[in-house]
Structures are given as structure tokens and as C-alpha cells.
């Protein structure tokens, strides 16, 4: 009995540690105090001001958010495309070549972001590519693609190996076999790869920081970094972070429900 | 043979994967409308051959022609044939209807014709009313029917079937065999069937191609293959058999198990060593010695459903397997005889091992990729290329592979009534044949020892 209480208390404690910071921000997004931690009564003013874009700060936030979403969307679409093709290519390889490529695919994921960022920065400088939105997207594609490969690969191994050949046999060209048979099979893996890429891209600071150039391109992370250095966070960031957290939470819940439904079917 | 009757012709086709030769100089033709089966143990190259025909693989050398045209380089989606895969390979994201309609849609067949054809094949495979079902909800047998329907709806000239029944249980398999045979009759197209199941091959086929280790062992009708196997492998692989060493004394006269028998074979020459095959059901067994050609003692008797299977030790110490409707008591003395037509005589592929080698000194020779001691032979000196002859029973097999210069893997075992005839393959791919009384299992690793006095060395 004691053991059980202790176990539960421990679990509650760990969960509290994990979620306290975000709860803290969520709670204080409903008050207007400038400095964090001061409760000056319940209000939704911060939400209103964030979405109305009334202040210059909230306009900057919204524009940074827009840039962030744009980069995340474009980068993850490209990464999903490249990663899926790469996974198919690797899957149909044999022996040492296959093992080597799978190993090479894993390295960028373990490589610290800061090294990826600096090396991409040096590469772009070396190639005389002026840095801005395009270089940030390219950079995000490079670190997202391995995750797509990693997500699509298991779907390929689960697949009946003769399916592609069956499509060719029935008269499909390799391209038709890919689009009509392989891709539908790989869709769940591509989707989770896409979501993961999207979140990784949203989350990224180090790589973006080194590849955005000096044209004043701001994503949320670079904006918050600059904002914090100027002294104190813009209050409207609190409701924005709360909303982002909620959106991700909802997406995760939906994905979980979907996958557990699927398991029931089988 | 009219050339127009040949739909597929395979000439000198070879294929290797890495160092391993999977198909070695395959020559065969397929007649229009026949049911032909590639039969052999796993790894014999039968599936590779099918995949070459389907176009999923390219041959290293040789040509495959279809209706007289070379199909080398024609991709699978342009070949007028369809395949039924071993594990069905249905498209899980499509329902039954869309699976079957897949090929027709790609060929832009009008929608109403697609529907009519899909419904027709569904009926043919006894799956009407299943068109809206999810393929994942079907049983193995049902999935296989859909896979067949998906292939034949395209009206291919040739239907390729890659062990289509291997994943089904025995009862289902038997039912499907009958249905396949009927389907073949109804459709009138050529079936090329791959299986390792000899019974299935005998039941279904018009022609059987027996393959082993990438080579064709025999091509013939089921009755030919069963009654007149051309070599030990075919005799052993198809059905049960007694394979025995014998000597062709003269035309129509053969001796084995220490007795002389009349047979129907001729043209082997006189006093030529041969292999003799007698099927277990072709040995007549009785309780009396009167009228018997030889006698023996029953060692075991097992009931097998339709018949009894007995092991009999003959008067000269050979073990024979005999099948009869009557049981004979274990320990009793029985008389036996074999009719001349039931004795199948086969030429021996070889009567002794002959290894190519090089003398490394006056009394050592390199054979099988290793150095062996050998007798000094007059007229043969160092660096001479030689042939080393070793009798089957002079090859010593050792438990410990390190006790002999070379070792190998037991790849084929044949019981010859009084001894085992083993084929041993060394890591470099040399074949060594050995007769032994010891019991070895397939894939055992054995040391290969040959005493110097057992080698006969001649200049190559």
C-alpha cells in the first residue's frame, strides 16, 4: 500500500516537473502584468492584442510566426518527398551498400545542431550563396530528410516485397507503380515523417540562426532570442506559446487515437 | 515439333548472384497452352527462372524468346504475361474489385467492360459477391483466388504461378489444385508453375522440368518422370524409391543386391556399373519362397493409410523399402520378386571421383584447393597437371574438419540399400562423392581425408 502511494506520488512529481513550466506560461498568459510571475487579475487582453496585431510587437510576432510556418511547411514537404524516395532507394539496395547508407542517414540526426548550423553557414559562404529564406529552407530540408527516411523505412520493411513487382506485372510503369501502389502503402510513414519534420523545423534555432543571413529574416525562435536579449519578453509571446502547445497536444492526441483505432481493426 | 506451337523458348540461359551460379545453361521450351511445372528443392533456381521469364531479372547470358521474339530488355509491364505471387501480393489499400481492375484500368479499358470482366473472373474463381470486400479481411485461400483473378482478368498469354499454394493448409491446397487444373482447361492459356512439392507437380502438370543446383535434371511428362527417372536425383526427389548400385551384365540382364534380374533396358554395354531404381510398390512380397527371385527378413512394418510400408533386409544384406496392401509380420521370412518392366536402369554419372590437380612435389598434389599427400608415380614430376582418381568408398569422412586437409558440407544423401552415397561440397565449390556406412545428416561439416595409397594419378 505504501509502495503504491509512493509510486503514484513519484509519478505525479515527475509529471509536475515536466509540465510545470508550460502550465506556468499558460496560466500567466491570462494576466496582463509585464513581468513574469505577477498576477494582476484575469484577462484575455494579451490574446486580443496578439491577434489584432495592434502593437508593433505583436505584429512582429505574427510575422515571425508566419515565416516560421512557411519555412516549416516548405521544408517538410520537400524533406518528405526526398526522404521517401531515399528510403525506397535504400530499401531496394543490398548488403554493405544498404548498411552503409543507413548508417550515413543516422549521423545527421546525432550531429549537434550547432555544428550542422555552422557548417551549413560556411558552405553557403564558400559557395557565395546569399543567405536568407531560401538558405534557411535548404538547411531545414537537410536536417529533416533523415527523419523522414527513418519513418518511411519500417513501412517498407512491413510491406509485402512482391507488391511493387505485382504492379509492374499488371502493366504499371515504374512511376505508376510508385504512385499507385508504393506511396499509398507508405503514406502513414510519410505522414509521421512530415509531422516530425514540421515540428523539428518549428523548433529549430541554431541552424536557422547561422543560415538566415543578415537580411532581417526572423523566425519565432530567433525573434524570441533577440527579444529576450533586448530585455524582457514581449507579453504577447505567452498566449502564442500556450496556443502552440495546445495545437501540438491536440495533433498528438488525434494521431494516438487514429493509431489505436487502426490497431483495433487488425 | 511445329515451331508455332512453342510460346516460350529458353536457350543457354545462365544467371549468377555474386559468385553463386543459380542457373547454369538452361535450355527448354514451353508449348502453347500446356501446364508446365518447374520442380525442385529450395535453392534449385526454379523461382529465378520464373523471374527471368516475368522480366524481374535479366539473364547473364542466353536468350529467352516469346512467340519467336527475343524478350531480353522488355520490361515486365510490357510483357504479355501475368504472375501469381507466392504470398499473393494483393494491394492492401484497394478492395477486391480495385485489385482485380488494376491492370485493366492501366490499360484504359472502358469502365463498363472492366466491370463485366471483373465480375466474370470473380465467378470463375468462385468469389462472386466479394467485390466490395477489403482484401485484408479475406482468408489465405480467398486472397489467393483474388490474386489469380487479378492476373487472369488481363487475359495474358502465359500465366506464371510462383508456389501459389505453398502458404495454404493441406486440405485447401488439394482443393485449389483441382480448381487450378480446371481453370487451366477453361482458359486454355499456358501455365508455368513453380513448386517444390513433387506430388503437386505430378497432379497438375502436362510437363515437368526437374531442376537441381541450377541445372535441368529431366524434362518429361509426370509418368515419364516417375517411371523413368534419368538420374539418382530425380529418382530420389520424385516419390519414394530404392536406389541401388548394379551392373548391367548384358542387354536385358542386370544384377543388383547380389542377384541377377531380367529387365527391359538395353544398349548399356556389358558389365557396366549402373544405378537401378525400383519403386517400393513394384516389389512383390509374399510369405513363401516358391516363385521368389530372392528372400529376406521383415525388419519393420508401418501402416500408412492405404498401404503398409515395410523394410526388408535381403539375403545378401541390402535394405529395401516395400509397399504392399498386406502387412507382413516383423521377423518373418518373405520371398520377393520384381517384374522386368519395373526395373529402371540409369547410367551412372561417374564411377569414381576424378579430381584435377597439380603436383606440388613428387609426393604431394594440390587437389580440392588443398595439398594432399600422394604416392610417387613414375613419370610424374613436380608441377605436372594430373588427374587424381579416388574411389567413392576410399574417401574418409571425419567428424573433425581440422583433422583433414580439406572439409566440406554434406549436400545430398542417397541410401543405396547397403551404404550411403554422399555428395560433399567444399567451400570452393568442388564436389566430392563418398560412399560410407556411417550416418551423416544433410549440411553436416565433414573433414575429407584421402590416403595416398587410394589415389591413382595420371597425367592430365
Quick overview of this protein structure:
By secondary structure, chain A is an all-alpha fold. Helices cover 79% and strands 0% of the residues of chain A. The longest helix of chain B has 18 residues, at 170-187.
Describe this structure as you would to a colleague.
The complex is a heterodimer of chains A (266) and B (460). By secondary structure, chain A is mainly α. Chain A has 11 helices and no strands. Chain B is of the alpha+beta class and 460 residues long. Chain B has 8 helices and 30 strands. Chain B has helices at 46-54, 96-106, 111-124, 140-152, 170-187, 198-204, 222-227, 232-237, and strands at 6-17, 20-31, 35-39, 61-66, 69-70, 81-84, 158-162, 190-195, 207-212, 215-220, 242-250, 253-256, 259-262, 272-278, 283-286, 294-303, 308-314, 319-324, 333-338, 344-347, 353-361, 364-367, 370-373, 385-390, 396-398, 406-415, 420-425, 431-436, 445-449, 456-459. A 6-stranded mixed beta sheet of chain B has the order 6-7-8-3-9-10, with helices on both faces. A 5-stranded antiparallel beta sheet of chain B has the order 13-12-11-14-20. The longest helix of chain B is centred in the middle third of the chain and has 18 residues, at 170-187. Chains A and B meet through helix 7 and helix 8 of A and helix 2 of B.
Amino acid at each position: 500500500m505504501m509502495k503504491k502511494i509512493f509510486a503514484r506520488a513519484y509519478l505525479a512529481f515527475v509529471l509536475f516537473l515536466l509540465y510545470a513550466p508550460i502550465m506556468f506560461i499558460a496560466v500567466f498568459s491570462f494576466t496582463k502584468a509585464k513581468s513574469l510571475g505577477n498576477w494582476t487579475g484575469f484577462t484575455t487582453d494579451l490574446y486580443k492584442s496578439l491577434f489584432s496585431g495592434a502593437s508593433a510587437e505583436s505584429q512582429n510576432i505574427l510575422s515571425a510566426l508566419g515565416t516560421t510556418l512557411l519555412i516549416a511547411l516548405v521544408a517538410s514537404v520537400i524533406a518528405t518527398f526526398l526522404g521517401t524516395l531515399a528510403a525506397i532507394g535504400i530499401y531496394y539496395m543490398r548488403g554493405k551498400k544498404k548498411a552503409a547508407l543507413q548508417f550515413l542517414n543516422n549521423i545527421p540526426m546525432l550531429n549537434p545542431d550547432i555544428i550542422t548550423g555552422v557548417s551549413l553557414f560556411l558552405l553557403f559562404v564558400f559557395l557565395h550563396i546569399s543567405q536568407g529564406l531560401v538558405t534557411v529552407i535548404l538547411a531545414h530540408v537537410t536536417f529533416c530528410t533523415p527523419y523522414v527516411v527513418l519513418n518511411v523505412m519500417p513501412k517498407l520493411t512491413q510491406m509485402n516485397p512482391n507488391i511493387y513487382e505485382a504492379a509492374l506485372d499488371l502493366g504499371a510503369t515504374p512511376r505508376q507503380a510508385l504512385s499507385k501502389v508504393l506511396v499509398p502503402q507508405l503514406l502513414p510513414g510519410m505522414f509521421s515523417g512530415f509531422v516530425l519534420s514540421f515540428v523539428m523545423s518549428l523548433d529549430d534555432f541554431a541552424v536557422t540562426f547561422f543560415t538566415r543571413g543578415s537580411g532581417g529574416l526572423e523566425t519565432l525562435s530567433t525573434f524570441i532570442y533577440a527579444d529576450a536579449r533586448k530585455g524582457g519578453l514581449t507579453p504577447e509571446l505567452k498566449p502564442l506559446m500556450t496556443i502552440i502547445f495546445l495545437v501540438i497536444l491536440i495533433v498528438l492526441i488525434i494521431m494516438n487515437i487514429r493509431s489505436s483505432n487502426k490497431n483495433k481493426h487488425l | 515439333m511445329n515451331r508455332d506451337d512453342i510460346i516460350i523458348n529458353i536457350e543457354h540461359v545462365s544467371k549468377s548472384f555474386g559468385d553463386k551460379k543459380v542457373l547454369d545453361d538452361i535450355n527448354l521450351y514451353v508449348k502453347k497452352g500446356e501446364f508446365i511445372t518447374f520442380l525442385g528443392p529450395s535453392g534449385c533456381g526454379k523461382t529465378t527462372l520464373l523471374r527471368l521469364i516475368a522480366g524481374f531479372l535479366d539473364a547473364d547470358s542466353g536468350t529467352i524468346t516469346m512467340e519467336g521474339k527475343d524478350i531480353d530488355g522488355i520490361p515486365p509491364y510490357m510483357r504479355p504475361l501475368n504472375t501469381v505471387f507466392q504470398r499473393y501480393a494483393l494491394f492492401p489499400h484497394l478492395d477486391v474489385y480495385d485489385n482485380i481492375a488494376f491492370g485493366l484500368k492501366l490499360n484504359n479499358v472502358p469502365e463498363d467492360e472492366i466491370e463485366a470482366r471483373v465480375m466474370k473472373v470473380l465467378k470463375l474463381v468462385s468469389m462472386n459477391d466479394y467485390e466490395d470486400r477489403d482484401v485484408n479481411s479475406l482468408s489465405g485461400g480467398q486472397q489467393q483466388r483474388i490474386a489469380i483473378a487479378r492476373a487472369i482478368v488481363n487475359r495474358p498469354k502465359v500465366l506464371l504461378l510462383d508456389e501459389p499454394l505453398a502458404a495454404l493448409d493441406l486440405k485447401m491446397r488439394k482443393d485449389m489444385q483441382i480448381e487450378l487444373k480446371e481453370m487451366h482447361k477453361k482458359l486454355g492459356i499456358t501455365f508455368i508453375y513453380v513448386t517444390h512439392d513433387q506430388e503437386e507437380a505430378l497432379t497438375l502438370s502436362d510437363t515437368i522440368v526437374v531442376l537441381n543446383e541450377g541445372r535441368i535434371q529431366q524434362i518429361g511428362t509426370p509418368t515419364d518422370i516417375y517411371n523413368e527417372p534419368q538420374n539418382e536425383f530425380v529418382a530420389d526427389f520424385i516419390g519414394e524409391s530404392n536406389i541401388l548400385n548394379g551392373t548391367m551384365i548384358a542387354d536385358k540382364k542386370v544384377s543388383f543386391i547380389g542377384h541377377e534380374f531380367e529387365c527391359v533396358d538395353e544398349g548399356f554395354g556389358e558389365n557396366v556399373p549402373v544405378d537401378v531404381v525400383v519403386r517400393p510398390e513394384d516389389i512383390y512380397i509374399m510369405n513363401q519362397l516358391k516363385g521368389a527371385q530372392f528372400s529376406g527378413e521383415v525388419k519393420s512394418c508401418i501402416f500408412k493409410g492405404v498401404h503398409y510400408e515395410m523394410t526388408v533386409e535381403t539375403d545378401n544384406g541390402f535394405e529395401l523399402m516395400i509397399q504392399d496392401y498386406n502387412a507382413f509380420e516383423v521377423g518373418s521370412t518373405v520371398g520377393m520378386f520384381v517384374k522386368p518392366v519395373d526395373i529402371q536402369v540409369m547410367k551412372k554419372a561417374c564411377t569414381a571421383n576424378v579430381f584435377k590437380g597439380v603436383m606440388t612435389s613428387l609426393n604431394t598434389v594440390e587437389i580440392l584447393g588443398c595439398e594432399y599427400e600422394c604416392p610417387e608415380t613414375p613419370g610424374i614430376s613436380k608441377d605436372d597437371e594430373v588427374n587424381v582418381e579416388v574411389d567413392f568408398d576410399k574417401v574418409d569422412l571425419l567428424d573433425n574438419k581440422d583433422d583433414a586437409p580439406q572439409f566440406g558440407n554434406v549436400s545430398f544423401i542417397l541410401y543405396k540399400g547397403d551404404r550411403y552415397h554422399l555428395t560433399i561440397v567444399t567451400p570452393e565449390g568442388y564436389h566430392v562423392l563418398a560412399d560410407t556406412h556411417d550416418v551423416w545428416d544433410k549440411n553436416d561439416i565433414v573433414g575429407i581425408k584421402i590416403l595416398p595409397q587410394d589415389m591413382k594419378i595420371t597425367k592430365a
